[in-house]
Amino acid sequence: MTFRKKKAAEAGEESPAPKKKPSTGQKKSRSLRHLGSLALSQAGVVVLGGAAAIALVLFLVLQPAQKSQQSEREAMAADTLADRVNQRIAILRDLVSGYAAQPAVMASLRSGGEGDRMTPSSAGLLPQTRATFVFPDNRIRRDQPGDFQLSFVNVDLARRAERGKIVGPDAFPRDGTWFVQVAAPIRSGDDVAGTVLMVFEASVLRPALTHADAELDGRASIQQTVNGQTRAVIAAGSGQGESVSRDLSPSGWTLSYQSGGTVAPVAGPVAMALVIGVPLLVTAIVVWLLLNRAQSGLRRDVALLLQWSHKVFGGERAKMPTFRWEMVGSVGEALQRLSQAVDKRISRAEANARPAAAKGGKGKAAPAGGDSSATDEPLFSDSDMPDIDMLDGDDDVLGIGESDSGSGDLDVVESSAPSVSVAPEIFRAYDIRGIVGDTLNDNVVRAIGQAIGSEARARGVSDFCLGYDGRDSSPGLAAALGEGILSTGCNLIELGAVPTPVLYFATHEFHTGSGVMVTGSHNPPEYNGIKIMIGGDTLSGEAIQKLKTRIDAQDFESGQGERSQEDIRRTYLDRIVDDTAVAAPLRVVVDAGNGIAGELGPMLIEELGCEVIPLFCDVDGSFPNHHPDPGKPDNLQPLIDKVAETKADIGIAFDGDGDRLGVVSNTGRIVWPDRLMMLFARDVVSRNPGADVLYDVKCTRRLAGVISEAGGRPIMWKTGHSLMKAKMRETGALLAGEMSGHIFFKERWYGFDDGLYSAARLLEILGIEDRDSDEVFAEFPEDISTPELNVPVSEDTKFGIVETLSESGDFGDGSVSGIDGVRADYPDGWGLCRASNTTPVLVLRFEAETDEALARIQGVFREQLQKAAPDIAVDF
Fold first, then answer.
1. How many other C-beta atoms lie within 10 A of the C-beta of residue 577?
2. Which region ranges are annotated with the description Disordered (predicted)?
3. Residue among 82, 333, 56 nearest 211 (CA)
4. Same domain for 616 and 552?
């Protein structure tokens, strides 16, 4: 729009006196009143600043001084107590070492005595002595006579003493009571003839802590750290506040001390408030007075500026007054230049109007009262003046002008982005899975990448790790996926071809918490998929479906992320080797099924000190030998044959992306993952009594009993790696496992499913056993069971069939659970039917005490399935 000069009044007509606009004056007055409150606000700021200063002095000067005195006092107390405890520990070690050197002990050893049936008696050495064991060299076993049963912890300590040095003390809990054990070698000359293991009640250390309450007025406790978990062995006294720790002579032992009182403060808060507050209050008053004075001067300048501007723009010539405030003077100078430009423009308009008026006198008379030229001339159009016409012609853009149709409505123009058709069936319960060239291609995966990146941005995440498995289609799909993620502004760390656990490890190592893995897992070569982790959460259920919704709506973020490459494989292997130790070298057959774990799996097991016999470890995405699915007995047959041929101690199989584990014993028996979980649970719970252990609905009913007997808490949950990880975070479980072979260790590891790490933990346990693997697993209860049975159905009907089975199925006296599918438990066995989340099949499994019971339960499920879906072929 163009600002124009008002038309001149007609000749002889008086101009009406300009009327004041009350609203404007009122607004100005209100503005001045707001300005007047500035002084009070500034004074308030000073007062608040003073209060803050008092608080800072109190918290940053006085309290730290008091805390420093307290810390010195606590440090001295902790040092004193640590010395006393170390002296007590030295006494225990000398006691056990002296006992081992007694001639009677050697005589008892030579006469064949072992365990706690020997002389001389050790009961009189200390009243807290619980049990004493004497073992001949290389004959340490758990099955010893007496009422104190040995565990792996006791046997391990005794074996370490066979190296010729006293070992311990080491603490361990049993039935809610803590014990302390020390082991020493029995020497015959320079040789080690045997070992003494002496177990004390933890109260044997109490005399060193009793002074914590009497003299030092506090609480002292002895703590032991094993595998990153710290637990109190014994404590005395009472205290409060932060604890002070001191390392003790045994590795992993610390003394923790809490003071029972505090040092008197140097000065109270009231005194400090007076010392600091009074000067600050005076300062606030001075600031208020100064700002009030400044406000009066500013008000005077503004009044002078208004008076002068009215005169100048009214046509008078007036000299600009002198202002006190520089900012008001700057405004005055700008108004003066504007006034001069206006005068210049008016003079030019009048000069142009004279010839037009003369020409109009010869012809048509000009309008009375003025000339049209002056009326239509733009007021501000000089190039040296501010462009006030900048909005001219833009009324339509702003929506304030009329449209051609005369309506005031605005037409909304929608920009259309190219869309891609994505099959809904690829979005599974806990990952994305489809057939390459059919439901999965570069365009589809690129759109999925955009959805993943956009969802991450919505969650405040901007960094991803990207890996892919050894399938022929994986590199291309990974490239398309990366393009989609980068296009949303997310950064990408490309790991190359790695097992899925390496990707998970990288998200922890690089602190991204987010990663995507292109993998078809154990499926046939024509399949592929994507596993997704955002902000520490492995996506499942609704979160997976939300990606489909984003793609359908083209709800994508835009940007350009940065790409980098990292090789994390060596760091991953080193971390596992540092965490695990295999005491005895084992001969291990490794079958990778030509999957991506074929590179790192044999390398890891070899670096653990084992002899590796590789089988199908060349990465080949066509899987020429068998499908990389250790859950199928047929796929394990080559491993069984190789174990028998090479007389190996154990056979290990990995799936296509290395996050699942299969095991074959030395006799060729398949050790199904639920029985493998029995061994892992007993091991983990032995160090973590009361720990939660998760297992999925496909696992044996005997597993819960083994977990409970070991002192853990069994929890059954849904099948699916992402669902299991979410439940682990919810419960704090230290171990979880699925019948499919996904094993999740939170103790000493990161809590994700890792077939390679699980293999290392298995070899660590077997390495300290003096029995072969078949004997180790034989001690666990076992029913007659089937492997996973698959009934082919369509992708569209599988969940409906299971829902019908759940709602209308008749399972007699079975106890039906709907955690995941339909599981019916009977007194003598159980059966399960659930819909697979990865392939178009129903998954069934049965277990019973006898063949007759197994056949009966299968018959019940067969009959109910035929009623729920008469068209499917039920041939189990």
1. 15
2. 1-30, 349-382
3. 82
4. no
Tokens of 757: 């790490």
* Positions in the chain whose pLDDT score sits under 50: 1-36, 115-120, 213-215, 358-417
How large is the greatest C-alpha to C-alpha distance in the chain, in angstroms?
151
Residue 194 lies in a domain: yes
The number of distinct structural domains making up the chain is 5
Q: Give the angle 202-207-209 at the CA atoms, nearest 5°.
A: 85
**Distances in Å between the alpha carbon of 616 and those of 414, 590, 642, 656, 659?**
55, 8, 11, 12, 17
* 369-376: long-range contacts, CB 8 A cutoff, minimum separation 24: 369/7, 369/8, 369/9, 369/10, 369/11, 370/7, 370/8, 370/10, 373/349, 374/5, 374/8, 374/349, 374/350, 375/4, 375/5, 375/7, 376/4
Kindly state the helix (H) or strand (E) to which residue 452 belongs, with its residue range.
helix 442-458
Torsion of CA 720, 721, 725, 727, to 10 degrees: 10
- Rounded Cα gap, residues 233 and 252, in angstroms: 12
Q: What is the CA radius of gyration of the chain?
A: 42
Candidates 145, 224, 142; CA nearest to 180 is: 224
DSSP string across 8-25: PPPTTPPPPPPPP-HHHH
Q: Listing from the earlier edge strand, what are the strands of the sheet with 243-247? A: 229-237, 218-226, 253-259, 243-247
One-letter amino acid identity for 134? V
The whole domain housing 710 covers 580-782
Q: Are 73 and 242 in contact (CB under 8 A)?
A: no
The pLDDT score that the predictor gives to residue 794 is 92
| pLDDT at position 838 | 76
CA distance 48 to 243: 36
Answer yes or no: do 726 and 763 share one domain. Answer: yes
Domain-terminating residue out of 326, 357, 375: 326
Q: How far apart are CA 405 and CA 584, in angstroms?
A: 90
Structure tokens at 160: 């370490």
pLDDT at 313: 76
- Three-class HEC string of 225-260: EECCEEEEEEEEECCCCCEEEEECCCCCEEEEEEEC
Does some domain include residue 140?
A: yes
| 589-628 as b/e: b if 16+ CB within 10 A | bbbbbbbbbbbbbbbbbeebebebbbbbbebbbebeebbb
Residue 61 CB-half CA count within 13 A: 11
Whole-angstrom Cα distance, residue 700 to residue 236?
45
User: What pLDDT was estimated at residue 186?
Assistant: 86
Q: Give the span between the Cα atoms of 723 and 694, in whole angstroms.
A: 11
Residue 695 pairs in a beta bridge with 716, 737
d(CA 286, CA 280): 10
138 contacts 193 by C-beta, under 8 angstroms: no
Please state, in angstroms and rounded to a whole number, the distance separating the CA atoms of residues 295 and 305: 15
User: Which stretches within 591-672 are classed as H helix?
Assistant: 597-607, 633-646
The pLDDT of residue 272 = 63
Cis peptide before 265 (omega within 30 of 0): no
Q: Express each pLDDT in 71-115 by its tens digit.
A: 777 788 888 888 888 888 888 888 888 888 888 777 777 776 554
Q: Are 760 and 576 in contact (CB under 8 A)?
A: yes
Question: Going by C-beta distance under 8 Å and a sequence separation of 6 or more, which residues neighbour residue 178?
Answer: 171, 172, 201, 202, 233, 234
Residues 563 and 590 in one domain: no
Residues with a catalytic annotation lie at 433, 521, 742
Q: Say how far apart CA 124 and CA 390 lie, in whole Å.
A: 104
**Are both 740 and 614 inside the same structural domain?**
yes
User: 106 and 118: one domain?
Assistant: yes
Specify the pLDDT at position 521: 92
The residue among 259, 290, 306 that closes a domain is: 259
pLDDT of residue 194: 86
- Residue 845: closest CA among 825, 827, 863: 825
For residue 174, which amino acid is it?
Answer: R
Asked if 132 and 243 sit in the same domain, the reply is: yes
Rounded to whole angstroms, the Cα distance separating 816 from 22 reads 82
